[in-house]
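Note to self: user wants both folds in one dump. Writing first protein now.
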Amino acid sequence: MAFCQLGQYFIPDLSRSFQEWLTSRRGGAIMELARCRGLAAAIVLFATGTAFAGETPTQTQRVQKALDAWLAERSPLEGVTGIAAYVSLGASGPNIEAFAGKTGRADDDPPVDQNTLFAMGSTSKSFAAAVILKLEAQGLLSIDDTVGKWLPQYPAWGGVSIRRLLDMTSGIPNYSETEFISRSWVEQPKRDLTAEELIAAAYPDGSNNLPVTEGYHYSNTNYILAGLIAAKATGKPYQELVRELVIEQHGLHSTFYSPGAYPPDVIARLAHGYFENTACAEYQPSDCKESWNKPMIGRDVREDSTSWAQAAGGAISNARDVTRWMRAVFEGRVVPPKQQAEWMSMVSTKTGEPITQVSEEHPQGFALGLVQGMIPGGPAWFYQGMTLGYRTLYVWYEKDGILITVQTNSQPDDDANKLSEAVEAIHSAIKTQ
């Protein structure tokens, strides 16, 4: 699979991983190994911010054991040093917060805890969708407006609607798979790129005409354009819109968004992130033997600029805030009903055509920055956002009323990425009677 940025990374792989769930549990031996390695971590219970005395130790111990076991098994294979998890059981609680491992590879790196942040990657595409839909509800734009109406400087894409940007059916190439971006990561990791520079890497100019696609094709360029449209419609920077309409309105106290380098106080809370992906980029030749990104292998990207991600997935958060936000999204507490229906409307990732639900024929659907797929037990909403050195995965088990988020600190190859197994193990621990 071609190397791809942000949420695209493992949407295909995640679907496969869910189908393979329940096949690789290893039991108590791994827990003992975790203890020997000093990976076992404390668990904290919350019910609307307060410890819930009625929660049984048995359930919480099972969640902690699942997290410790996953880390002990996957650490040498995925290059991770720590993992955080948050389990939301609904308004009545209790919620479960668990941690395992350390924030980095140095001997003196502290353990992962409530204060630790991870990059959200494309799970923060939901921020862009929320901003656009809130602006539509205010009458400032329509998701059927075109790029040409708001950004006439890109005439090649003038007829593409905002809706098609958000559901990945625009046909617009993906800037984050270009040699320009890879060279920026490798040669100028501290450089702050502008949104216009990102778009220019994909915009046809006669010398870099990248393939135009039909149907569904994951492209981060879509969300950079959406962020610029939101800014144009309001006269406010996208960063300010995210702060006002998402972070402040929904009490996300450990969530941050910057189009460039993050301030030292945020970096100080961010886990170290390790790049371990050897895959070639999408726009490298099909017989590619060596990725443009090879010089980055093993690098700690914690202090690198995330300006290359921006509205396509540049936010930083913790598992508690991601869970709080996504539950608000799925429970319809972010936008009015009309916009909620638009938000959840899906296209098949096989055909790009609208579907009302996933099925064996169409096992995965992409909505506006949201994904639904088939997992054991039926369909569920989930998203794995992956950015250089980090992964954030949430799964919304609507039937059970359970939302689980896990975060960790590496970006491995597709085949090594088994973060979904951590979610499945936690869900099994919660459901076990």
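First done. Writing the second protein, which came from a different request thread.
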Amino acid sequence: MGELESALDLLAAEDLHGLAAPQHLDRTARLVGARNRIDAELARGVRAADVAQAPEHDGLKTMRSWLRGHARLSPAAARQIVGNGRALEHLPAVAAAFADGQVTAEQVSVVAPVAALDAQVAAVVQGVDLGEVDATLAGVAATRPHAELGQVVHHYLSRLDPDGPEPDPTEGRSFTISTHLDGSRSIRSELDAIGGEKLEAALESIVQANRPKGDMRTRAQLLADALVQLADIALAGGQLPILRTVKPHVVVMLNLEDLVDPATGPGEASTGFGAAISAARARWLACDGTISRVIMGPDGQPMDHGRTKRVVPPRLRRAVETRDRHCVFAGCEAPSYWCDVHHVLHWIYGGETNLDNSALLCERHHTKVHHGFRVERQPDGRWRTYRPDDTEILIGVPLRV
């Protein structure tokens, strides 16, 4: 690893301005190959670490969660690395091409479904030579366009079970929400025919019920507004499942002075899911909402319930969520609605039910701190996490030593 890092230092120090066009292209091609080889080794190493349950050393369950928390990868990037590592165990030809730099990590993820257990079983039952399939896919990945590889994989998988049973509609459904820096969302979903029909029927009823004269909104805008209205109706109806002891609702946190100040105040308020909005928009929501007063200062409303209450009351939970925002265990960013309020000093040992003795922990890490791990809040408000051997789990330091 030291030699690799030294080589990268030398590459970074090269002057690229004097290179001719062919030299730029040759250098780029060689870097892509080197990147592929590093990605291959990363996938192999992550798979070995996962099998060895190495993430437990830092209080985490899987390498996916470790990569998100410690390596600061996106969920999609972490999922791809772990999935590639698993698939390559069953695709030696693809693995060899990957390690040689001829195949990219994205191509491996396209091929990965071929290595799924059900696909392997179907292939064995039908007498398919998996070694030949592996070699063919490696050749296509190394020589053909990326889109063509996907077509080949899809054709192979569909041929394994051309007359299979009617699929479970829920297996093909997916719904992902990506939150941007300004709090706006991008939504991507896949629905089966019946699920899509239900959603379209609900949205269309709202779209057709409100068609004022002069409405210049596009069809896409009408459907987006209808989706938000559908959420409004569901939340206002009060029939949704209870979420962490309370009915689901929109949460907005805003300073008192910004609530009464008529200024716009961009970015002054934050929502329960972590988006930043203006004070003006927060006041707009407050017109039809319930305002809860949460005072965090030592001279304000006391949050101390002493030892008269073992279960955290809603008012205290709101204060803990306002302060911690997500699970405080190092490397975990589970949102508040996944979390319990933990007594830092256990209640059974004399710990009080108050803000100072509370920490927001997801279910997994709540269990961890009851089995040897511990969290401590420093005077500056920063949380620190310690393993059972009292070594600290450090986050936010450079990965390179």
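Dump finished. Worth passing along: Confidence is low (pLDDT under 50) at residues 299-308.
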